[in-house]
Amino acid sequence: MKESSTYSVAIPETVHAQAADHLLRPDGQEDLCFALWHPSRGKTRTTALVKKLELPQSGERLIHGNATFLAQYFERAVCEAASAGAGIVLMHSHPGSGWQGMSRDDIRAEETHAPAAYGATRLPLIGMTLGKDGSWSARFWVRVDTRKYEREWCTHVRVVGERLAITYADHLVPPPKPKTEQLRTVSSWGQRIQADLARLRVGIVGAGSVGSIIAEVLARTGIARITLLDFDTVEFVNLDRLLHATRLDALLRRPKVWSLARGLRRSATADDFRVDELEWSVCEEEGYRAALDCDILFSCVDRPWARSTLNFIAYAHLVPVVDGGIRVESKPDGLQRADWKAHIAGPGRRCMECSDQYNSGLVTVERDGYFDDPSYIQGLPVDHEIRRSENVFAFSLSAASFEVLQALMMIVAPLGIASPGAQTYHFVPGWLDEPKFGPCKKNCPFPNFIAEGDHASFAVTGQHRRAELARAERVAERLPWCGRLAAFFERLAERLSRSC
Length: 500
Hints:
Layout: E1 6-12, H1 13-23, E2 32-41, E3 45-54, E4 61-64, E5 66-69, H2 71-84, E6 87-93, H3 104-121, E7 125-130, E8 136-145, E9 148-153, E10 156-160, E11 164-168, H4 183-189, H5 191-198, E12 201-205, H6 209-221, E13 225-229, H7 247-251, H8 256-267, E14 274-278, H9 285-291, E15 296-299, H10 304-316, E16 321-331, E17 334-345, H11 360-367, H12 374-378, H13 393-412, E18 423-426, E19 431-432, H14 465-477, H15 480-499
């Protein structure tokens, strides 16, 4: 049986650099090596996370224009993988550029070793080819029957670090054709980068004031696949900040993801635009697995459990997380302060906890349900982060812009600059702090989880009572005939506007 509908590979930037240094020989000959990988199983996609290389020792491979590995090298790599609970990757280099195909010798080498690799590790053999320009191609050898293995091409390979560099399999994920609606966008960075951006699968965790603006920007930029994760309901108190939400949405108690997805379908410039509206928390198993299907995540949440989960995903599953936050303080005599910040968590960057974006001690408190206990909340200081709710749409707009620009910098890398550092803006008195760079604090556990994926011994999901209650309340309060009637008039209005 096939494990998943799609496959991909992710590799930390440091491991990619080590592999390129070994495989791209100065003499132009091909070379090879083995590596270890761990699985990251999303809702619809399985990703192989390359953890470390097992470089050849003297006498373990032959270089003769092409490259051949000897039996003892394969056996050593298999033993290392089995002891680490990992799978095997066979890497080799090609003299071409871009996504590489396979010669008959390539196919024979991988297919004949797939049974032994699977038998020892219970994971498919992964084949990867590195082109001379640093582009990767990859495939899974999936067991479909006794001693029968089929090649499943990956849709793409992403290298994750300070920069997010992706090589796509154009035959599986074709680059989009230029469109008049995107002319000004494409002219800024060119069709190649636009094609890379458009094919990203982007997840937005939190469809509130910041998340809704980020989603709008991405849809208009040409991103073709967006996943929205939020369990909450549109309320009248949200309407001064929630993009695309209407009074009717609040009256009918619609999910935030539903109203936002409806608006994005009107704004999107991609031809085959798809938005998935998921009424889950990223802390629930369903939402967590959906997040693992994404290439990049935007964190638009304000509670510690969700941030801790996203922080783990950024390192263990090699999905960079663009995070931000807003803090507003007001008193009876007026606004005292308004600050917002943006940064990216992932390999080679400081994590959210080390950036003081959440308090790990409060994660357990939230998981135990105390944040939904009115008596507990009333006992907190008035200025505690959990009790604060002030916000202004203009502040959300700026915070969302900071997050989007962080992501664009990481992918576009203008003039080779992929990170502006962690940024903090103070509305009062109106200045931007010096950007902060650097790794995590000493003894931070998250860098140790890099590329561990599903094999990381760290539980981040669980029962989320607040999310369950929100969904249950919507079902209980739903008026079927009223909702259907409203949806009919909305569709009619949309058709009339298109015909005009």
